[in-house]
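TL;DR need structure tokens for one chain.
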Amino acid sequence: MTAMDLVTLAQQQPQVPGTSNVRDWILDNIVPLLLLTVALLLLWLGGGKGDNAGVMRRLGGVIVALAIIGLAVTTDAGSNIGKWLAGLFVGG
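>> reply
TL;DR here they are.
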């Protein structure tokens, strides 16, 4: 490595590590896999016994959980909701 290469490297902006790639990987891979697992478990546990009403009740809870995940991921409301929940316990 020459002195000119070192000068060029020293003048570049430092790369700040972030979590955007990890976040994107989780959203693209882990979340769909978990949803598929939940759907299969709901069908296997409830549908096999003929308990269709129980499956639909659980499905309502899954839809609410998906709405919360979507709200937290697509907007900045996740941090505001967290602060609000913490304020309920701290009293601030």
